[in-house]
Design a protein that fits this description.
alpha/beta; 3-stranded antiparallel sheet; disordered C terminus; 2 domains; Rossmann fold
């Protein structure tokens, strides 16, 4: 949290050319420590020491994702009180007015461009490796375009603070990011988060947070989001009632919930081949899930066109979720 900024550690942290370069890089995008080391041409342990100083001074924030540690700036117009805002403006002005510093920052960004290209290559390789799996699932479903168009209508134009649970490739965060004041995209898989990071890296710095976590225990604050979205995710849940209880916990009063998933079906092969825990959902099941979690459900929207029907269920948070021990009893 940047409310604890103090001038002495702040100035000490900035009194090093490498740390100034790191802060300018982080103003562009979130980066892994290893990626920073690659850009800066320094060893990872050395860069880690610089990162610790910046984090201790509350100028940057660390986030662990699998075996990787990612860094993002903790200051800026949208992130910090006056001292943090002034620091961000000072660093931007330094790059504008100091020719030598500007040249170094430009060179760093050229190296950064190579890293971004490598991310895109890694994403393409991943999809090439799994193309047959994706194609098999897609062949059963309604085309993506009408589903996305119907979801856009259901969500509306002002999403406020958006939570995309099970973001996968980041497609929903990319599609609806402009309608939100901020996006948090969460996924359990570090591999999928790397794909999402490649897709979302051109969005404004600080607009999207990518978080690793499980949908049954979201590492997020209570009542923090205006819109909560599950896109083709809930069928992986062994206990969807627990997942929706967590969604309700992080949703503000009046927050919108949207679930895009499969209508109830009998394709048993999806359990063994693609780890689907649920063979879709009926409207009655979804109404029960919404009600128990404290959401008022709207009429469902059905999108047929493939062997499997895709449905969109939406609702609004109207009350407190059912206590966890009650949910667990219901799931037995």
């Amino acid at each position: 949290m940047t409310h604890g900024l103090h001038i002495d550690p702040l100035l000490r942290a900035l009194a090093d050319p490498t740390r100034l370069r790191i802060m300018r890089l982080l103003s562009t995008m979130e980066l892994a420590v290893g990626e920073l080391a690659q850009v800066l041409g320094q060893s990872q342990p050395r860069v880690s020491r610089h990162v610790k100083i910046l984090c201790d001074a509350l100028l940057a924030e660390r986030r662990k994702e699998g075996s990787w540690v990612f860094l993002k700036a903790a200051i800026g117009e949208q992130r910090a009180p006056s001292l943090g805002v002034a620091t961000a403006r000072l660093l931007a002005a330094a790059e504008q007015d100091d020719a030598a510093f500007a040249a170094q920052c430009a060179e760093d960004r050229r190296h950064l461009a190579a890293i971004r290209a490598a991310r895109e290559t890694a994403a393409a390789t991943y999809f090439a490796r799994h193309a047959e799996e994706w194609d098999q699932i897609r062949s059963l479903l309604t085309a993506e375009e009408p589903v996305e168009a119907a979801l856009a209508v259901a969500l509306g134009d002002d999403l406020g603070v958006l939570l995309d649970i099970g973001t996968g490739t980041g497609r929903m965060a990319e599609l609806f990011g402009a309608r939100a004041t901020h996006v948090t995209a969460i996924d359990k898989s570090p591999d999928m988060l790397r794909i999402a990071r490649s897709r979302l890296q051109d969005l404004p710095a600080g607009h999207v947070d990518l978080v690793q976590g499980d949908f049954t225990a979201l590492p997020l604050a209570d009542a923090a989001f205006d819109t909560v979205l599950f896109h083709q995710v809930l069928h992986y849940a062994q206990a969807p009632e627990l997942v929706l209880a967590e969604a309700a916990r992080v949703a503000r009063p009046g927050a919108r919930l949207a679930i895009v998933d499969l209508a109830a079906h009998a394709h048993e092969e999806l359990r063994s081949a693609h780890a689907h825990a649920r063979l879709g959902f009926s409207d009655e099941q979804m109404l029960h899930l919404f009600t128990e979690a404290g959401f008022a459900a709207d009429p469902a929207v059905a999108l047929a066109g493939g062997q499997l029907t895709v449905k969109i269920w939406t609702g609004r948070r109207i009350g407190a979720p059912v206590p966890l021990h009650t949910i667990e009893a219901l799931s037995r």
